[in-house]
Amino acid sequence: MDPPTYDLPAIQKQPKSYHPLSFHVLALLMPFSVLGVLARLGLSALATYSGQSIFSLAYAQATGCLIMGFCLALKEPFSRYYPPAYIALTTGFCGSLTTFSGWQLDIFKSWLNSSNAPRSALNTVMDGLSKSVFTISLSLASLFFGMHIATEISPYFRAAPPPGRFFRSAATVLAICIYAATIPAYYLLPRDYRHQATSALLFSFPGTLTRYLLSTHLNAVVPSFPLGTYAANSFGTALLGTFHVLQSTGNRPLSSASCTTLQGLSDGYCGCLTTVSTFVAELSALKTTGHKYRYGLTTFLTGQIILVCIFGALLWGGNIVKDQTCVFD
């Protein structure tokens, strides 16, 4: 008598595990940081025009949070396929597309009425409040909408088998080459592009890497308060306030090269070091309402207090002016 036979399930290839500081993970952050900065600058440029109804940064924040929500809802299939790809999309692209420091500076400049618009003090307060509440509301709504879209398509979403060694190696080499290309792009493209984009691209990955290292080492310290993201957003806001001060010294104007470098550090390093998409994702993930309000309000108030101490004190002391005095060639 023949032994019974059984239908054995197909043996699925298990995804390779990666250390958070694996070279494959860090390398893939490079091009996605560059793409995130390009998308943010492009969206801001498209949304900046005479008579605009919505401040231009809102579009980048909404887009980044939408993609973040989509990726969060599909984290399991993304991670099954290639974990570095999930980190690159969320931490790299979405984190660089959205910016906390730019949002904080935009709000602070509204309190100051830096545009010198003919309006009352009440109107100035309302302008700052609207940018604060609108950005948080829009970002959270975009995050949840992205999750909703992912949930709707998840039944039709099939994760591909994990990539082989050749694909992983090729993706890593390509990622490094894309970021390396930002160096010749800075020198070969027209000089006007330097303060507009190419200088920021040089500083994009260092900003993302700093944020990633802070979150990797500090976020687990206090489970109810993501300390790493808080540190990245606070530190980046302090740096942006400092760079803005240096760009606003009316009595000691800087050279064009210095202005370009400061602009690149502001848009690239600070823009990628700070993030709204991760901030609202963490807000939504905290377990209790008290933890959510504590984290959200502490992060927001810290950013504004930092700008008061760095930018406001010098402005009210008469050492700098409201508008940037930098001149680009």
UniProtKB/TrEMBL annotation:
<feature type="transmembrane region" description="Helical">
    <location>
        <begin position="54"/>
        <end position="74"/>
    </location>
</feature>
<feature type="transmembrane region" description="Helical">
    <location>
        <begin position="21"/>
        <end position="42"/>
    </location>
</feature>
<protein>
    <submittedName>
        <fullName>CrcB-like protein-domain-containing protein</fullName>
    </submittedName>
</protein>
<keyword id="KW-0812">Transmembrane</keyword>
<feature type="transmembrane region" description="Helical">
    <location>
        <begin position="132"/>
        <end position="150"/>
    </location>
</feature>
<feature type="transmembrane region" description="Helical">
    <location>
        <begin position="86"/>
        <end position="105"/>
    </location>
</feature>
<dbReference type="GO" id="GO:0005886">
    <property type="term" value="C:plasma membrane"/>
</dbReference>
<feature type="transmembrane region" description="Helical">
    <location>
        <begin position="295"/>
        <end position="316"/>
    </location>
</feature>
<comment type="similarity">
    <text>Belongs to the fluoride channel Fluc/FEX (TC 1.A.43) family.</text>
</comment>
<keyword id="KW-1133">Transmembrane helix</keyword>
<keyword id="KW-0472">Membrane</keyword>
<dbReference type="GO" id="GO:1903425">
    <property type="term" value="F:fluoride transmembrane transporter activity"/>
</dbReference>
<keyword id="KW-1003">Cell membrane</keyword>
<comment type="function">
    <text>Fluoride channel required for the rapid expulsion of cytoplasmic fluoride.</text>
</comment>
<dbReference type="Pfam" id="PF02537">
    <property type="entry name" value="CRCB"/>
</dbReference>
<feature type="transmembrane region" description="Helical">
    <location>
        <begin position="170"/>
        <end position="189"/>
    </location>
</feature>
<dbReference type="InterPro" id="IPR003691">
    <property type="entry name" value="FluC"/>
</dbReference>
